Amino acid sequence: MMPNTDAILVTPGEKNSFRQGSVPVVDDLRPGDLLLEVVAVGICGTDAEICEGLYGQAPAGHEALVLGHESLCRVVRAGADTARFKAGDLVVPIVRRPCPERCPACAVGRWDECMTGHYQEHGIKALDGFLRGRLVLEADAVVPAPAALGELGVLTEPLTIVEKALERALQIHTAPGHPQTGLVTGAGPVGILAALLLRSRGLDVYVVDRRPADSPKARLVERMGGHYVDDSQTPFEKAGPPGGFDIGLEATGYAPLVFRALSALAQNGVLALTGVTGGHHTLEVDVNLMNSTMVLENQAMVGSVNAARAHYERAVQDLAGFQLQFPGLLEQVITARHPLAEFEQALQKDPDDIKTIVTLG
After folding, report:
1. Contact present, 87 and 102 (Cβ < 8 Å)
2. From 3.90.180.10, 3.10.290.10, 3.40.50.11540, 3.40.190.290, which CATH number describes the 4-145+328-359 domain?
3. What average pLDDT does the segment 56-64 reach?
4. Is the pTM above the cut of 0.90?
């Protein structure tokens, strides 16, 4: 009989169906498997929306889904053919897994660009997530994390979103000279990590939100050497550099802000969208002006979702780099911690919160 482990379960499609329960843990490891204990899980808007019943898909043959996709784990035991891992190692599980058809993208490890849409995602779509005490994963489904990162390794997955978005933007921004100025819309966890990534690359960064200039988010941006703009007081278009922004990373999913950010680009500028717009929002947009400006100014707007293994590996390296370049700053990104039994409280977010995590290990 397999042992059980505590978990947070939800019935996808049913509002407020989340509850604490238990799920079995495989006892015998196959070659290539790792037995992991979960150290921490980040909570984000996706988790809240699944709890609202807006989407989510349980594994085949099951009614319930284990929540949680941003995670940091520790190896308990390694099966055969896993020589690069040992007990005690920290690892970050990869959220998305390839489609069963192994489409051309998934076949080369680019499940983030899956062409069938049949990919699976831990804690979101057809694969149980990480809000549980222990689980078994294949070794090729995790990325090693330095011990020095400790709990901060839980920030890896949200940083991968930015890593891919910036990669895509820089593939387009090939004008002579490196990008000099960056715009980040939204000072949530993805926005703050985006600002750190751009600052680590030497860009002059402006972060836009609607919290006061003396708020924790604003102080964090200033500590990294960026500029914080309270858009409720000063439109960011007036506060930014005269020539506009070379690179924009949009992290709110708020449609009016998307178009404002697009209009604030510099010549050759690129705006990468990472936030998903929900519901319906009607806007009046001068599409002729937008079209002519983008053509004549050689601008681009690109969407970016999820991440591949290379982005996870880069994110782990960059988090370690942030620790050196911005001492003590990453610790301030995690603003609330809750045990598994307080998951409901973890869903409640204060306006000044950045990243809330559930601690297990």
Report:
1. no
2. 3.90.180.10
3. 97
4. yes
